[in-house]
């Protein structure tokens, strides 16, 4: 029975890692093709591209070592390696929620009706603020996550001490209850603030789409740009709903972990799995709903197809 549970857990992490790696790599490949052909990316494309990048980092720093550990590989990392991997993962996880929030806010401002000179100036400046905002989010989360490497160590032989998160490939030893609680409160507060802003902006998008449904349909019939904005808004709503579902499950488990001194490895594995589901599934929603990404992937696939027999025969005759 134990072997069956280990096998199911290992296969689950392996599938999650493989699908997530494939999906995010395809999104990045598609946007590479866009840059090569158009020499620039639209603001929303920059955000989606960066979301795929940080989700890929998240999967590589959490799911890959977790999968290797489940299948019996031990002593993967030493203390410095654990500090680097855990710190990188914490930053990538934080950026995933921040950039999804940024995408929602950007789309809300983009489709908002003109309400005065301030909003008009903000809309005009918005594309130029994308890269500085992303850079600021990197710096902010690097500062917030600074404590992660201080508590990260390679697994030790023997029992896992209290107030320690046993990740299998690494331990996060907070040493005492106060450090354990403070870390949990800081991380949870940051996440809830960004998720709250994400929900507010997404609710505003839904309100606009509902209130102006007739106008939106007329815009879609008369202008390609309006249809593109509506499709982008629907993509944002889908990504936000997807994130909130897995965020809720992840934080229910996290709150439970904060209430106990010794966390079961099974509970830690569940948290890792659900916290990585968004990074695994979101690129496929981007591919299915983004015509630009889909068209570039179709072009790449068509270029890789071998020539047909009829084409080869005609070339031989020539």
The fraction of residues in strands falls at: under 5%
User: What assembly state would you assign to the polypeptide chains in this entry?
Assistant: single chain
Largest sheet: 3 strands, antiparallel
**Average of the residue pLDDT scores:** 81
Radius of gyration (Å): 23 Å
List keywords for this structure.
318 residues; mainly alpha; 3 strands; 3% strand; globular
SSE layout:
Layout: H1 2-38, H2 43-70, H3 79-111, H4 117-144, H5 148-151, E1 152-153, E2 164-166, E3 171-173, H6 177-211, H7 213-222, H8 224-258, H9 265-289, H10 291-304, H11 309-317
Antiparallel strand pairs: 1-3, 2-3
Task: Walk me through this protein's architecture.
By secondary structure, the protein is mainly alpha-helical. It is 81% helix and 3% strand. It contains eleven helices and three strands. The chain has helices at residues 2-38, 43-70, 79-111, 117-144, 148-151, 177-211, 213-222, 224-258, 265-289, 291-304, 309-317; strands at 152-153, 164-166, 171-173. Strands 1-3-2 form a three-stranded antiparallel beta sheet. β2 (164-166) and β3 form a beta hairpin. α1 (2-38) packs antiparallel against α2 (43-70), α2 (43-70) runs antiparallel to α9 and α8 runs antiparallel to α9 (265-289). The termini are far apart.
